[in-house]
Amino acid sequence: EALGGNPRMLKSGKQEPALYRELWTTITAGQSWHGEIINLRKDGSLYTQELTITPVREGAGSVAHFVAIGQDVTERRRAEAALRAGEERYRTLFDRNLAGVYRTTADGRVLECNDAFVRILGYASREEALGGGAKALYPTPAAREAFLESLEAKGVLLNHEFEGRRKDGSAVWLLENAHLVAG
What we know:
By secondary structure, this protein is an alpha+beta fold. The protein has helices spanning 17-28, 74-96, 115-120, 126-132, 141-154, and strands at 33-40, 46-57, 63-72, 102-104, 110-113, 156-165, 171-179. The chain has a three-stranded antiparallel sheet with strand order 1-2-3, sandwiched between helices. Strand 4 (102-104) and strand 5 form a beta hairpin. The longest helix has 23 residues, at 74-96. The radius of gyration is 28 Å and the shape is elongated.
């Protein structure tokens, strides 16, 4: 059905005309074009196509025709959008949590933290808290090692209560839930 048809039959009306002008300017100049286009299926549904169009030249060097190779990336784009939305929900929960939340490496380097964590430990900013490290939470290196050994043995610690240290060295009692995450 498509053989002999004009590629315009795929045109959805959802693309800016400038995209088509750029596409045609590029390929008629003898260069390959690569991009994404929202096209129209025969049934009227839309799909996103990742497309490469390459001009084919005649013996004299003029463009004889074009070869287009396309891949439907609609589902991939939907999955990427869903992932971004999930990450945004996670970030909102993380940032707005009233409890101090942080993520750390096994060696005690804080990778991220929320404002409540910063406030509880007396830091001026997240950046300063990230520089302080989780090791500073524990009064002694032995206390941190005992915590890590218990976490590694169980994989999760719930309601782990301990006397921690603020930035200024003052004591603060903390109730911590910790989960060991691989990778």
